[in-house]
């Protein structure tokens, strides 16, 4: 029991350390645990940690790409970019239903806070063969906002129609974003914080 508590404490402490140290601590903790407690440590996790350490050591770009690839905190089937996770949903829905679907997954329709994030989302849309997908932008009393409460400081309008008639924003795969009626059915991108905060 002490070994399990010690292992838990080491893993908790390692979670605050840089990714390279996390991988090394996981391998070290697994190697130091007594044989009867080895069953408590999953072999795949040990192998993943060892592979991460090797990848960091062998990475030609230093260590950032290898660390990001091996320590993705996003849930399975979500894509990591910057400090957020993104997921493309291929079922067309109205803007309201799309937002509800993202809420059920623990997130919101995606906001876009800078040009790099826009380019990343645009690449997702292009790779899926789509032309237009919902984003989390909407107009309220003539003011554009993001449903996830991000500030609407970056904008990339391709075309903009009346916000009263067309209050919901969609991303265009080739240029910027536009707005349309929220009752249109489009595929969409959800986003969320990987740590649920």
What's the quick description here?
With 197 residues, the protein is of the alpha+beta class.
Structure write-up:
This protein has 197 residues and is of the alpha+beta class. It has helices at 2-15, 19-32, 43-58, 64-70, 95-104, 115-127, and strands spanning 79-81, 84-93, 108-109, 132-140, 143-146, 168-172, 177-180, 186-192. Strands 1, 2, 3, 4, 5, 6, 7 and 8 form an 8-stranded mixed β-sheet that branches. Strand 4 and strand 5 (143-146) form a beta hairpin. Helix 1 packs antiparallel against helix 2 (19-32). The radius of gyration is 21 Å and the shape is globular.
Reconstruct the topology from this structure:
Layout: H1 2-15, H2 19-32, H3 43-58, H4 64-70, E1 79-81, E2 84-93, H5 95-104, E3 108-109, H6 115-127, E4 132-140, E5 143-146, E6 168-172, E7 177-180, E8 186-192
Parallel strand pairs: 4-8
Antiparallel strand pairs: 1-2, 2-8, 3-8, 4-5, 4-6, 6-7
Helices and strands, in order, run as HHHHEEHEHEEEEE
Tally of DSSP helical segments: 6
Strand content: 15-25%
> First CA to last CA: what distance?
32 Å
The parts where pLDDT drops under 50 for at least 5 residues are 1-69
Mean pLDDT: 75
> Which percent bin holds the helix content?
25-40%
Major sheet: 8 strands, mixed
The shape is: globular
Radius of gyration over all CA atoms, rounded: 21 Å
E-strand count: 8
Structural class category: alpha+beta
Which key phrases capture this entry?
single chain; 197 residues; alpha+beta; 38% helix; globular; disordered N terminus
